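<goal> How does this chain fold?
<body> The protein record starts here
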Amino acid sequence: MKPYKVIISGGGTGGHLYPALAIAEEFKSRHNTADILFVGALGRIEMVKVPKAGYRIIGLWIDGIQRSLSLRNLMFPIKLILSLLKSIAILLKFKPDVVVGTGGFASGPILFMASLFNIPTLIQEQNSYPGITNKLLSKTVKTIAVAYHGLERFFPKEKLNQTGNPIRKSIAEDKLNSADAKAFFDQISSKLTLVVLGGSLGSSSINQLIAANLQTFEKKGLQLIWQCGSLYYDQYKNFQNDRIKIIPFVAEMDQLYAAADIIISRSGAATLSELCCVALPALLVPSPNVAENHQYHNAMALANKAAALVITEKYLDQNFEEVLNQLLDPIKQEEMSKNLKELAQPKATSQIVDLIEALL
């Protein structure tokens, strides 16, 4: 039998990219001769991270629609037409057996054209409130894998499969030793470690919050691993000392979670699924700068089950110290960890690849 040929498309941010890589890893572990091709957006995170993970990628000249008037919006129809034409060329040349999308504008053209060509298609929606690309694609794709209940409000009910979000195997298995992981980041194994995650691109508001509260963290006996984002590294790197490790981007997320005792983080869906698996007490600060405010909906889905604490950016300054004290309360930590474990779906990646195999 000839090897399967699979196209996986998704990116723009780590929240769409890392689920795509997790699916590729699981598919490859089952079908080691499979030929997997990624399709992404030129100039975005996937164009660097996918080749580093050992896969080929082709970039489309595509961009999302901006919420304000801009020249980029005027260019959108041209980019879309050219991306649709390039998608046709990719499909005709590569001849995939199945095309998988994990969201983000990069996945729109290739999934749409694959559906028109009657190639089996699957989309995976990470969020409790879907983005516009997956909403549009849901009308034409064959199968939809979702992480949250209640998405029949947005997608055809008969196509839905509740799987959870794909998680990289090393994180789902959570086998690393805490003391070794702390040593990996030059931390003291006996000290409580706060990990700060601003998303793959970094967060200006979270970085400002952390910088303003360094003395508070010191008084409370915390050491920090602060992932500030490559855009902000030069601005904050001088805060680094023997108890504060500042990193632009962390590739070794399994090590990072193993080193963490508590977390302050954005609430992208992929990150929250990982937090559920590793059951780490977290304070979530949803980004207000995302489509349909989905990070807020994601965060509240955990908060409503007493699995995380949430502060919106508007109330960060006035509420932070009070909520930090809750995060440091051992009883509260135990409650959150227990509730996170109940929400964890460590077999999500495997179930999604089962769905892909069913299409094949």
Q: What stands out?
A: The CA atoms of residues 121 and 249 lie 32 Å apart. The chain has two domains: 5-165+346-359, 171-343. The mean pLDDT is 92. The first strand starts at residue 5 and ends at 9.
